[in-house]
TrEMBL record:
This is Alpha-1,3-mannosyl-glycoprotein 4-beta-N-acetylglucosaminyltransferase B. Pathway: Protein modification; protein glycosylation. It comes from Dendroctonus ponderosae. Transmembrane segments: none annotated. One of its GO terms (biological process) is protein N-linked glycosylation. The keyword Methyltransferase does not apply. Residues 130-407 form the MGAT4 conserved region domain.
Length: 542
């Protein structure tokens, strides 16, 4: 591993002694995720619990009803297809439509109208064809596989409470996806993970890139792929129009029009796939940070509003853009169709606002009334459960430092006491974030421009009894600023005892190479250890 070519935050911790009196902690810097416990809930009566349970079942029933309607639509299409196959070769396809039975009084009236042209107008061989996605996205007709998934990694999990939609695209500067997924998973309890689904939509048509991302996700989160918590999909190239032929709207540059138009289509695709997966759908981005147990908080808030008969359309768990917006899966078709209709016209967050305006606002009443009506449908949760951490936008050249002030502060380090040691480093520190101050527990360590062969060395004044050791790099505000292509080496007094077989061997000067290319390293050492060394093998930019 090697440090990225920019400031890198690092955290090392949990030096655990074999004897209870010898416990020490080492933090080289960086942060751990913030956590908190909720205050004790007030006593909830059995009647209130029953009301909440009924509300939960109502939302679930709405979701199941939407799935039933989808199956009805599939059955109707199949029936029409079978009827068409049964027609004589020269018969009109319109004759395949079933004809409803007439009431006796209508039959008598037609009998009395015998010979009149007006009588011939009953049940004409004509069926009305309603607009579909093909009317708004005609390019889909140019490719028979336009709506066929180009890639899918899935265990087929269905019927969960919450589906998290995470679209991701290739970024020029750096990717935050793996850090985002790691944070989302770490913020779940086991129960939440079993009742949730994370759908990663790789909104790219370059299959080589899609496979690279999917491979990395499986490498990092193999257990969660296997359990069905994470699914990965990508669209066919035919799903997207010729972005060079888009209308220029809102006075934006062609690049921005292309970017926001594609985002609208990406959201519509992801929502269409996710609609059948669970009761609630939450739109996220690939560069966010979530608070612990965010799943339970969102679900509880949604059920509470439903139990109070509040006819909400969107629950907002983040004040920025389209992050943390929850919808009932049964109502996603409203959004999907709206995004398809106006994908070339406005940004996706504007379209959501316009949809709400269309649903609840009266042109004949003043704007204050409109705001109140929208507030009843678009309900905000405070404090926010999600924070935007990305700096480099997926739009080329755009730098965004937007932060949700409702999210609160994230702890960047935790005060600690370390054993006496001599500390040396070849890596220049950034501003006041020195390795010495990090070791003293005053702040985190942030280094600049590492070079191959650079070292961070901790030489203890006396050998220290160690039971286990944890090394972790990264920072919640700068998640990709961490060690890459780096090894951790330790110098034991006696031969080490390993929790698992070592992946490498001893160095010529007696150091043990703990493990390569991992952020989280654990070993069980012998009675004492002289020192610890971090060795950068090569630099790696993002």
């Amino acid at each position: 591993m090697a440090l990225v070519n920019r400031p890198g935050a690092t955290r090392t911790g949990d030096w655990r002694a074999e004897r209870p009196v010898a416990l020490a902690r080492v933090h080289l810097g960086g942060i751990t995720r913030s956590s908190w416990t909720h205050p004790e809930r007030c006593h909830v009566s059995s009647e209130q619990l029953l009301i909440q349970r009924i509300a939960e079942l109502q939302v679930k029933l709405q979701y199941l009803d939407s799935m039933y309607r989808t199956r009805q639509e599939d059955l109707r299409r199949l029936t029409e297809h079978i009827d068409l196959l049964a027609l004589p070769p020269n018969a009109s396809a319109l004759l395949a439509a079933p004809v409803p039975e007439l009431r006796p009084e209508v039959k008598q009236l037609l009998k009395n109208m015998s010979g009149m042209a007006a009588a011939q107008g009953v049940h004409p061989p004509f069926s009305l064809r309603m607009p579909s996605s093909y009317h708004f996205l005609p390019h889909l007709l140019d490719d028979v596989s336009s709506l066929r998934l180009a890639y899918l990694l899935s265990k087929g999990r269905l019927g969960v409470s919450v589906v998290l939609g995470v679209p991701t695209v290739k970024r020029e500067k750096q990717s935050y996806l793996m850090d985002t997924l790691n944070n989302l998973i770490e913020g779940m309890t086991v129960e939440e993970a079993n009742d949730s689904l994370i759908v990663v939509f790789i909104a790219e048509t370059d299959m080589e890139y899609v496979l690279q991302v999917a491979k990395e996700i499986e490498f990092r989160f193999a257990a969660y792929i296997e359990s069905g918590l994470i699914e990965v999909l990508a669209p066919s190239a035919g799903y997207y129009p010729d972005f060079g032929k888009l209308r220029i709207t809102l006075g934006d540059s062609p690049e921005r029009v292309r970017w926001r138009s594609k985002q609208n289509l990406d959201f519509a695709y992801l929502m269409s796939y996710s609609q059948s997966k669970g009761t609630f759908y939450v739109q996220l981005e690939d560069d966010i940070l979530a608070k612990p147990q965010y799943i339970s908080e969102m679900k509880k808030f949604a059920i509470d509003k439903t139990s109070k008969k509040e006819a909400w359309f969107v629950l907002d768990f983040c004040q920025l853009g389209f992050i943390g917006k929850m919808f009932k899966s049964a109502e996603l078709p409203w959004l999907i169709t709206f995004f398809q209709m106006f994908y070339n016209d406005k940004p996706v967050d504007w379209l959501l606002d316009h949809l709400l305006y269309t649903k609840v606002c009266n042109y004949e009443k003043n704007n204050d009334i409109c705001k109140r009506e929208k507030a009843r449908k678009w309900i905000h949760y405070k404090p926010s459960l999600f924070q935007h951490i990305g700096t480099h936008s997926s739009l080329k050249g755009k730098v965004q430092k937007l932060k949700d002030k409702q999210f609160g502060k994230v702890a960047l380090f935790f005060p600690h006491a370390n054993p006496e040691a001599e500390i040396t480093s070849d890596i220049k520190h950034y501003k006041q974030y020195t390795l010495r101050r990090a070791y003293l527990g005053e702040t985190f360590y942030w280094g600049l421009l590492p070079q191959p062969g650079d070292h961070l060395i901790f030489k203890f004044a006396t050998p220290i009894p160690i039971r286990s050791y944890l090394f972790k790099s990264g920072n919640a505000e700068h998640p990709s600023d961490k060690f890459y292509n780096t090894t951790v080496e330790v110098l034991p007094v006696a031969a080490p005892r390993w929790l698992s077989p070592p992946s490498s061997n001893l160095t010529s000067d007696g150091f043990v190479i703990v493990e390569k290319e991992r952020e989280l390293l654990r070993l069980c050492l012998g009675p004492s250890m002289y020192g610890c060394l971090l060795w950068v093998h090569r630099t790696q930019g993002l």
